[in-house]
Amino acid sequence: MKDISELQGRRVFAQGHCRVDYTDPVTGKVLERIEGDNHVFDYQLNQALFQSSVLKATMLLTSGNMDLDPSLPFIPGIPCGYGNIGSTATGIYRGAYRSTDSFQNRISANHVTNMYVYDFLSTQIPRKIGYVGLTAQHGEGVGNAPFVYQWTRGDGRGMYDIEEKRLYYAPSTSLSNNVGGDGVLEIYSRYNVPDGTSKRINVFDLCDRPDNSQYQNIEPEFSDKKYDKDSKGYFGRWNYDPTNKHLCLKLTRWSSIRRYEYINGSSHYYYMFGYRDDIWIFDADGTQVLNHFTNTWQTEHERENSSWQYGYGHWDGNGYGLLQGESIITIACVSPDYAENLHKLYLYKYDCSTGSVDTTESTMLDSEFVSLYGDRAYYYKNFYWGQGQYYNSGSVWTQPTWMAMGPMYNAETDEVYSFNSCGYSYRDAYYLIEKGLTNNFKNLWTMKAYSSNNVTYTGQPRIPFAYTAYKLPSDAPERPENSAVTIAYGLTINW
Q1: Which candidate, 464, 433, 441, 469, places its Cα nearest to that of 46?
Q2: Where along the chain do its domains lie?
Q3: How far apart are CA 156 and CA 166, in angstroms?
Q4: Helix (H, G, I), strand (E, B) or coil at 237
Q5: Which residues pair with 135 in a beta bridge?
Q6: Cβ contacts of residue 31 below 8 Å, gap of 6+?
Q7: 3-state helix, strand, coil in the chain (%, to 5)
Q8: Could you report the per-residue pLDDT of 370-407, keeping only the tens digit for each?
Q9: pLDDT for position 402
Q10: Degrees (nearest 5) of the Cα angle 422, 466, 450?
Q11: Cα–Cα distance, 328 to 317 (Å, whole number)
Q12: Would you call 309 helix, strand, or coil by DSSP?
């Protein structure tokens, strides 16, 4: 018999098997059974301290029906259930750990076996089960990488190309109202490797200086009424194309006019807005402009609200965008009329050549919320996601997460791939996801520790990612109405 502590650092191979039973809640009789072998993200198992990580992993259920990317250690879909070792059933998501049939660390001469069994009530799991997996994505079983690494930037805010290990960030963006376009519109490029250096890319070095001293031309709604010029400003949004390694800046300049009326003893102001979008696409090194688009428009009707966002027509999303061809894609929990709705997720596609916007709306359940922050985005192959938070206000979904990510978009299939996201603490959103930090761990996905300073940071990265994922077959039987659910998940680690 081997002591499990002796296994650290050895090459291991794992296999898992999942069984999903839909049962009669009174008799316990199995009404339908679904089972099969799973996919194992073996590179996460081999590099993690699996004796203290995978054995305590969360069992996560999602509603995903898309295919799994074996190089991306995430379980696709919207979380619809979970279980922790030793937990009892609560709310509509967390199942009860069945200790009599579960076990960990059963060791033989060449393998260790684990069994995770959870019971869910008939009132739990509000969505159709698409995936079942073992993961550290939600705070349980999070291990540390077996190495200490030097990081070249403190908190990793910006646009990060995971494959290239290249980070783009904008330390300052300003545009004055002076004639001539005084101000700063710039982005820094840095390779996130030891001794990585930054390169400053000034947009004013690549294109004409935008002049923000003039109001946009606005045609008043009522020609017989008096309007005053009210205010003007700008809004900059950076985007990135990971396929072609192109950068993109969308600069929105807006102006407003207003009129005054005294109605029923009180003052009323009515506003109209004019907009100009300038979009510059240039190479990753910031040496030349590859394309430039300009779109102008105005609001059709007056608004009593004085905020320019309400008349813009769509929201850019929280965080940085994805450039795909001549389209900018963003994800937001803010509607086109700038009304935040945590029960909805909006996917925006902005056509740079025409200025037209296609909006896709996803409705969440009352127990599901998505909140997105605005200061980082990740790009990996055809996947794009921002930082975010998945939570609920009624404490139904009680499992905190640690993923420093928001909903993940698959540009190849044009679908939201995953809703797994970061934890409640805003500090958690400062983590930076990396892949392949060293030659010995080239496939390992890790997440750097938090540092509030923009300085070189040395630390041990964490590994809060999925270990396994089982996709239920497309022809699997439907869950019978009012049935309970029992899930048995076996995992054997061989060496």
Answers
A1: 441
A2: 4-142+465-494, 149-445+452-459
A3: 10
A4: strand
A5: 58, 466
A6: 22, 23, 24, 480, 483
A7: 5, 45, 50
A8: 666 667 889 999 999 876 554 444 333 444 444 445 78
A9: 43
A10: 40
A11: 11
A12: helix
